[in-house]
Structure formats: C-alpha cells, structure tokens
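Hello again, I could really use a second opinion on something today. I've been staring at a protein lately and its backbone has me curious. You're getting the sequence in one-letter code plus the fold written as tokens. I'd be grateful if you could look everything over and explain what you see. No rush at all, and the record is pasted right below:
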Amino acid sequence: MKDNFASSAEDSLTAHGDLMVPAQGSFTRPRRFSTAAQDKIDEAKLMVDAPAHASPARYASDAGLPTAAPIDLWGILHEQLPGKDQHILTGSQAAEDFRATDVSRAFDLLRTRLRQTVKQNGWINIGIASPTAGCGTTFTAANLAASLSRVPSSRTVLMDFNMRAPGLARTLDMDAGESGGLRDFLAGDVAISDYIVRPSDTLALGLGASREEDAAEIMQDPATAASLAEMCAALNPDIVLYDMPPLLSYDDTSAFLPQLDGILLVSDGTQTMAKHLAECERVLDGQVPLLGVILNRARASSIERF
C-alpha cells in the first residue's frame, strides 16, 4: 500500500506553528495565518467531539506517527442538499426511480467489490478516469459515491479533480459557489470545513467551479498532498474517490498517480478503442494498480442478464 496520505491531524497541528483554526472553529493549515496554534487547538478540542467512527490509526501507524485519534471534523461540515434536477442522490423522485434500474444495481455490485478490495489492501484513495473526454467519468464517480454512501455508518468523500472541466456540481445539481474554491483549499488557504460539503451523513463532496489551466502543476504541488493528507486525517473516510480528467488528454492524472492507491478506468462503448485502453495500461504500469475497466454506454444486446 502506498502511504502517500499517512498523517495525523493533531500531530501535524502540534508540529507546525502555521496551522490554525478559522473563526468558525474548523481546521486548516492556511499559510495566511501565522500566530501560535496551540491555543486554537485546545479551543477546537472543546468544540468538536472525539471521533466515533473507525480508528484513524491507519493514517499514522505506517509512518511511525502517534496513533492517538485526531479531531474529527465530519460532523461540522457544512450541509448542502442536492437539487431536484438530478437522479443520483436522494432528494428527488428521479433518484428514487433510478434506484430500481439495472444501472443502479450495477453500481451497487461495483461498490461491494470495491469495498472488499480496498479493505483487503488497506487502501483509501481511488481515482476514476477515462482514456479520453466524454466517456462518463463524472457520471460513474457520482453514482459509485452515491452507492457507497448507502452503506450504513460509512464515510465516502468524492472530490471533483477534473480541474479543466469540473462537472460534479452540475451533475448533482449543487452549488459549488457556496464553498471555497478547490485551488485555494489545496493551497492551504481555505479550511476543510469551509470547502468540503456534506449532502448526507455518509457522503462528503469537494466541488469545483472554475477551470484551472495549470491543473497538472497544482496536482504536483506538495501543498496539494499535504492538504489531502489533512483532509483524510480530519474526516477519516472509508474511501476517497477522485473524479479525474482524461488520462490521455493531459498530464493532470498522470501527475496525481503517486497519490492514489488504485484507479478505475471508464470505457465508452461508442468511442473507446482497444489502443486507448492499451495506452492507459502503459501509463499506469508500475505507477498504480488498475482495479478494473467500467464499460459505459454498452449496447443493450451485449449485457448479460441474470
């Protein structure tokens, strides 16, 4: 298992004097704050209950860090309900109808297999990408996250990391403008609880709104890895899904591979060719495990029914 996100929130807060708690009482490591952090840490401990979720020791033990439970921010994330003009998350009649379809059942099957795989390997961070644009990566990521979130007492985080064409907010009919920008969050200038929103008790989202032309550089910035490590330590998710840009179109996803434990490829039955998948396998070889290829827009006649 790669230990790219190994961290302990409390240990990090104690070790670095620039880590602060904004006025609302949520945690971050913004570079704009420079006063001593210890008083804020003690204050935050009074405001946030100790985590009742699964043990966070997995984030620290492999790195030799203290395994004391970090402060849990899941319960203080801003809530934002999905709109009615979507069929993926609970909150609309379309979502209820979609649950009865073969497509929804297929995502449930994928969910269970993914949960078993990540648990067996101790993985957390899973990327979802496609060879080229238009294969349905965001649709796949959103439906898989929704299916994962239906597991009681679970925690799933879905991040919109297609910075050149963010589409998760539109897919889920949510307002990305209600939270701080992804770029500022990754830079450490926006608090975790000011950026991550929670549409349900078991699902949290990192939405994107603006196009970033230097996406590949942001992916490789050490501040990005640090911010995501703090997010994992503070939210203690079972799985973090990253909706990634097309693997062959830009170097954004390739730049982020060291931060992933595994990746799922989305193949479009109407446009993806064998050479595209072969090239993706070449890019991924030796970098991160390819967990599987999801066939989207397959011909109905090719789907075997049981």
